[in-house]
Amino acid sequence: MKDTYLKQDATGLAAMVAKGEVTPDELLETALALTEDRNQALNAVVMRHDEVARQAIRDGLPKGPFSGVPFLLKDLGAEARAYPTNNGSRLMLGTKSAYDSEIFLRMQATGVVTYGRTASPELGVGPVTEAQAYGGPTRNPWNTGHTSGGSSGGAGAAVAAGIVPMAHGSDGGGSVRIPASSCGLVGFKPTRARLPDGPAAGEGWAGMATDGVLSRSLRDTAAMLDACTGPDLGAPYWAPPMQGTHLQAMQRDPGKLRVRYATTTLSGVPLHPECVAAVEKTARLLADLGHEVEAFRPAPDLGVEAMMLAWTQIVACGTALSVQSVLKGAPLDPTKVEGVTRAAIAYAAQISGADYLAAIEEVHGFGRRMAHVFLDCDVLLTPTLATPPAPVGKYKPDFEDFVAYRNGPGSVFDYSPFTAIFNASGQPAVTLPLHWSADDLPVGVHLATAFGEDERLISLSAQIERAAPWAAKQLSLIEGGPRTP
């Protein structure tokens, strides 16, 4: 059973269940055994609810596209009564929810068998997952000396290691795409408001945050997006309607597209040679597929740095609010939170209401400038990160200066200069596993399209997957398990 399980994506496992070739119980027990075997090296699965999962099978699973497939929730968001959360924080250990979030309900309706939660940095802040709540860092199965990314780092490690074929994640500035890139997976961020946020939030981090999944195959991501797409009751705004489904779009030829590629950041800063190689290789592939491919020349007034600083202010305020909602007026024990969280609270105290509104206006203004970029192209191609996955500890969240951690030299934004751009603009973006470094670390390639053009993006991604499939490379790790340096 283990060998069969490891070779299949979530769609493949669900098809086996539907045909009666395997049972949901068999798949769950295989996932649990793999968790026991592989998680110790990774610290990815941090909360287990085995009996909740077994009871769900006994009660009868929904007949959805993933009926019987083992699944994991991120230890942040996706509130669910049966699955307490730590939110990556010692301050919030075992927090129980009084309701089920809409995104959780829609995912559960696909028939997945959820048996636990995966590691997240404290309150989702940062491109690595090294929260003290879990007793140590979450590691990359391609090389356990490196990070699996963040903030959905536990999800990325669990999927890349073959523990589950797909897992829930969320993305406020790249938190699905960064770990997907770091772990050799697919990570798709849909257009703003394509997926529901309720009932806990109308818009996370001023509209920059959304839920999603990390998967090995594009078809798994497409099917889960189809199951979850659409506003929930009382949503403050909706995404532009789609013409069909993500799965249908995968079957269509994207047509000849105007692709522009960048081998520096959008501010002109050089990138790691492996990231440049990944972009150039993909640019050649797209040209061979018939697309118009040219170098991107960003406008000098695009203002990426100003947007990034505004976003730092928004995240600081959101972090302070999360902590305050737990404390309810009680004093904070500083040992219960990370240095970065303490720094965020201190920085937020300096931000006035007017400053906060100005930050939102800066983000919205940046989104309008990015919309103009896509008048002259259909697709923007970059690497997902500026370097291959960082060594464990390089971005450990023990800084006491929030701006320095995120915006200073050698900071988070130097490491991840692309992903947050599309959270700010609300445009769809995806990372695909198209390159590995000379020392066999994944280097994701990032593609983005205009606001609302999710179908175009997933159609192009499917064309790329057919032309340059990555499943065999993923299996080279999955069949052997995590690799230690």
Question: Helix and strand layout, with pairings?
Answer:
Blueprint (H helix, E strand, L loop, with lengths): L1 H6 L2 H9 L5 H19 L2 E4 L1 H10 L10 E5 L27 H7 L4 E6 L20 E2 L2 E5 L5 H8 L5 E6 L5 H7 L2 E4 L20 E6 L2 H11 L17 H5 L7 E4 L11 H16 L3 E4 L8 H24 L11 H10 L4 H21 L5 E5 L18 H6 L4 H4 L3 H7 L3 E8 L5 E7 L5 H14 L3 H8 L7
Parallel strand pairs: 2-3, 9-10, 9-11
Antiparallel strand pairs: 1-3, 4-5, 6-8, 7-8, 7-12, 11-13, 12-13
Helix pairs in contact: 3-4, 6-7, 11-12, 11-13, 13-16
GO molecular function: catalytic activity
Pfam families: Amidase (PF01425)
Protein name: Amidase
Structure description:
- The protein is α+β, with helices and mostly antiparallel strands and 485 residues long.
- It has one domain: Amidase signature (AS) domain (Amidase signature (AS) enzymes, Alpha-Beta Complex), CATH 3.90.1300.
- The chain is 40% helix and 14% strand.
- It has 18 helices and 13 strands.
- It has helices at 2-7, 10-18, 24-42, 50-59, 102-108, 153-160, 177-183, 218-228, 246-250, 273-288, 304-327, 339-348, 353-373, 402-407, 412-415, 419-425, 454-467, 471-478; strands spanning 45-48, 70-74, 113-118, 139-140, 143-147, 166-171, 186-189, 210-215, 258-261, 292-295, 379-383, 429-436, 442-448.
- The strands form three sheets. The chain has an eight-stranded mixed sheet with strand order 6-8-7-12-13-11-9-10, with helices on both faces.
- Helix 3 packs antiparallel against helix 4 and helix 13 crosses helix 16.
- Belongs to the amidase family.
